[in-house]
Amino acid sequence: MGDQLAKGEEFVKKAEKKLNGWGLFSSKYEDAADLFDKAANCFKLAKSWDKAGSTYVKLANCHLKSDSKHETAQAYVDAAHCYKKTATKEAISCLQQAVNLFCDIGRLSMAARYYKEIAELYESEQNIEQAMDYFEKAADFFQNEDVSSSANQCKQKVAQFAAQIEQYQKAIEIYEEIARQSLTNNLLKYGVKGHLLNAGICQLCKGDVVAISNALERYQVEF
Predict the structure, then answer these.
(1) What's the CA angle centered on 71, arms 65 and 73, to 5 degrees?
(2) Residue 75: CATH number of its domain
(3) Which of 68, 100, 133, 160 is the least buried, fewest Cβ under 10 Å from its Cβ?
(4) Which residue spans adopt a coiled-coil conformation according to this UniProt entry (predicted)?
(5) Kind and range of the H or E element at 43?
């Protein structure tokens, strides 16, 4: 591990020397990027996750200078996956940078994927409101890309959290929406009863007897 750490430090020095030296604009950043990539791999092998993460950020900056947005976004993702082991805040920041870049180049399914990952990190930190926000963003992006199953997974998380913080009406509306959408999808039809059951439980938690009765009648007609 010590050997890998030393090798990583050496690659970083060479990369920074490239950046500070003379050379063609594009070639300089490409050469430095290659060295930062090698350094980051060494730091990962040494399990030096903070150093690996910060080196991937340097790699991202090199790709950005070369106007390679996809490679920049991927470097931020790699940085985030290293930071996830030690620094959740930095991981979230890197994933947000990646999402912004994927949106810029029209890779909305990738943006959705990493919005979901940000949401899961906030969930792991017990930050329910931020987790809800990012699961909603992910659901919207997945829906726009017609990835219904992933969109529904994210919506269910939002409904679960909404119920947890006693936003029962919001949870009910989401469960009912998922149930309606699932009716038209052969792969998702089997889950309709479960979604309505969850909506019904939220109705019970609200304690509005009239609303519960009306909801049951409506479910029988609509579903």
Answers:
(1) 95
(2) 1.25.40
(3) 100
(4) 151-178
(5) helix 25-45
What rounded mean pLDDT belongs to the chain?
90
Cα dihedral across residues 110, 100, 131, 200: positive or negative: negative
Tell me the residue range of the domain where 40 lies: 1-83
* pLDDT band for position 180 (cuts 50, 70, 90): confident
pLDDT of 9-43, one tens digit each? 999 999 999 888 766 655 888 999 999 999 999 99
Question: Per this entry, what is the length of the chain?
Answer: 223
What is the amino acid identity at position 186? N
Q: How far apart are CA 180 and CA 189, in angstroms?
A: 9
The domain tally of the chain equals 1
**Quick check: is 179 in a domain?**
no
